[in-house]
Structures are given as C-alpha cells and as structure tokens.
Design goal:
Layout lengths: L5 H8 L1 H23 L5 E2 L2 E2 H25 L11 H31 L5
Antiparallel strand pairs: 1-2
Amino acid sequence: MSGRSFPVTFGAMLAPFLIWAGHFGLVYAINGAVCARAPEGAMLFGYPLSVALVAAATVLALAWVAVLLVMALRGGGPAGHVASADPRRFARWFVVAGAGAALVAILWVGLPALLVPACG
C-alpha cells in the first residue's frame, strides 16, 4: 500500500465539487468587484469586463473538471494506490458522478452571469 493518506484521497474525490465552489466564489467576486468599482466602458477582448472574466473562469473550470472526468473514465483516479478493486471502483464512480454534477453546476452559475448585466 502506498503512503497516500485518506484525507488526500478524499480531497481528490471531492475535487470536482471544490472546483465548482471556487468557480462559484470567483463569479460572485468578479461581479461584486465590477459593481463596486463601476468601471464605465471597461472592455476586455471586445466584451464588457465582467462578461470576459466570467467567461474565462467558466471555460477554465469546465476544462479542469472535464480533465478529471476523462481521467476517471480511463481508470485513473484518487484511489489508484489501494490494493482492493472495490474502493478504486467507488472512488472512480464518485469522481465521475461528481464531475457530471459539477459540469452542470458550473454552467448553471456561469451562464446567467454571462447573460445578465453585472449590476443590472
């Protein structure tokens, strides 16, 4: 058995949810900062500042969770060091299910922030 501890394995299993939580906080921080500072006409890549930053954060979070999903589907995962197959199978299933839920949650948070004005 490897020296990998339970908290590290459990943290890896929760990674999709942690990425979603980070994205959630970042989207609200971006919108809050834009509303507080009210940068009139601030543009980034031809889009309003908040839209460009939220889009970048959403794409990054979706890509990161997609990588975790692909790794879990290919048999990698947080419990690869465990000798028994049952915990590995459960950990991979948990990451796949969590990644699917996180992808939906990230879109659920990102799309309204992209469609509705930041301070509207």
